[in-house]
Each structure stands twice: as structure tokens, then as C-alpha cells.
Amino acid sequence: LSQSADHHYQDLEQLEQRLSALEEKMSAIIRANISDEELFQHRRELDSTLRPYRGKLSTEQIAMLERQYLDRRIQEQAGVPRLSLFYLK
Predict the structure, then answer these.
(1) Domain count, the chain
(2) What phi and psi, each to the nearest 5 degrees, are found at residue 10?
(3) Which residue range forms the structural domain that includes residue 51?
């Protein structure tokens, strides 16, 4: 039973990695096709959202949050669902 559980866990982990890779590709395609004005608007929203936390976070943390925020916003705007086992409905 333990071996079976380990096997299924590995399968789920691989599936999540594949979904993440696909989601990154979709975000890149969407980002390449949105206007500069839309991207600028999303960045302004991002800056106002992160402003209170900038002094408390490292540069790496801020960069990660910026990427995640922008990816999420452009996917929402494009009507593209999140590709993750954590967002299944």
C-alpha cells in the first residue's frame, strides 16, 4: 500500500509540474499579445498593492510576487483558467 501511495504521489507531482510548465507557456503567449497600455495598467495596480510590503520583502520575493501577480491578472483578463491541481473545481 505504501509503494502504491508513493507511486500515485509521484504521478501527481509530475502532473503538477507539467501543468505549471503549460501555464507558464500560456502566460508568455498572453503577455506577448496584450497591449503596452494593459501591461502598464496591471503594473500600476501591482505597485499600489505591493507598496506596503516592499520594505519588508527581499528583492527575490518581490520579483516572485510581481511575476505571480501579473501572470494571474493577465490570465484572468484573457479568461484562461489556472492550470494546477490546487485550483481544480
Answers:
(1) 1
(2) -65, -40
(3) 2-87
How far apart are the C-alpha atoms of 38 and 33, rounded to whole Å?
A: 10
Which residues have C-beta within 8 Å of that of residue 63, sequence separation ≥ 6? none
Q: Flag whether pLDDT at 2 surpasses 70.
A: no
Are 12 and 85 spatial neighbours (Cβ–Cβ below 8 Å)?
yes
Return the sign of the alpha-carbon dihedral for residues 37, 42, 48, 54. Answer: negative
The share of the chain scoring above pLDDT 70, in percent, equals 92
Rounded to two decimals, the pTM is 0.74
Rounded to whole angstroms, how far apart are CA atoms 33 and 4? 44
pLDDT tens digits for range 58-67: 999 999 999 9
